Amino acid sequence: MPLKKPSGVPKLSKARKKNSEAAKKAIPQKKEDKNEYLLKALFYYDETMHRQYYLLRLETIAEFTSFAYEISVDAQIEKKDINITIMGLQTKMNYLPNIEPAKADVPYENLVGDYTVNVIKQDGCINSAVFNFNIYSKNIKLIKKFIPLKKNNRRFCEFEVAEQEFSFQPE
Predict the structure, then answer these.
(1) pTM of the model
(2) Is residue 92 classed as helix, strand or coil in its secondary structure?
(3) Which of 41, 116, 121, 170 has the fewest Cβ atoms within 10 Å of its own Cβ atom?
């Protein structure tokens, strides 16, 4: 029996694009608290660009052995709020496998004062912390950690100031 000749090109469904606004509005499913991510605030001096940055480094708690991953994020700053939406994991080109967590670095230059940092997962969970950034005294303080009021919201992210990883311009 011969095959039927196709009349046209078949239509493929389009993949749904992940969107940071949709993640903010989503209502998460009810689950237990589990720390999956760690957000570190630190100073970082880029020697190639000769610039001083505030760096928000998001890491997974789990360490990966076979592949090296990086976290894909969408970062937005609005007045005194910094929203970091976790979009997913991507593999990095790595010839020698290392045991390391997945990371994402979000640099900022002109942060002075108190900022609320919101880490948002795709399922709609939001964890927040308030940091005080002061470049003049070379100081970052974690003022408070909290979970915003939202149905089924849970803790999934820890926050810390990584003073041991600070780097400044050599004098």
Answers:
(1) 0.85
(2) coil
(3) 170
Count of structural domains within the chain: 1
Residue 110 CB-density burial (10 A; 0-12 exposed, 13-18 middle, 19+ buried): exposed
In a domain, 5, yes or no: no
Q: Which residue has the tokens 């939202």?
A: 150
Q: What's the CA gap between 14 and 118, in Å, rounded?
A: 30
> Residue 64 belongs to what domain range?
20-165
> How confident is the prediction along the chain (171 residues), in pLDDT tens digits per residue?
677 777 887 777 776 667 778 888 888 889 899 999 999 999 999 999 889 999 999 999 999 888 889 999 999 999 999 999 999 999 888 777 788 999 999 999 989 999 999 999 999 999 999 999 998 899 999 999 999 999 999 999 999 999 998 888 777
Does residue 10 sit within a domain? no
The 126-134 sheet, strands edge to edge: 139-146, 126-134, 113-120, 81-91, 69-78, 100-108, 51-64, 37-46, 157-161
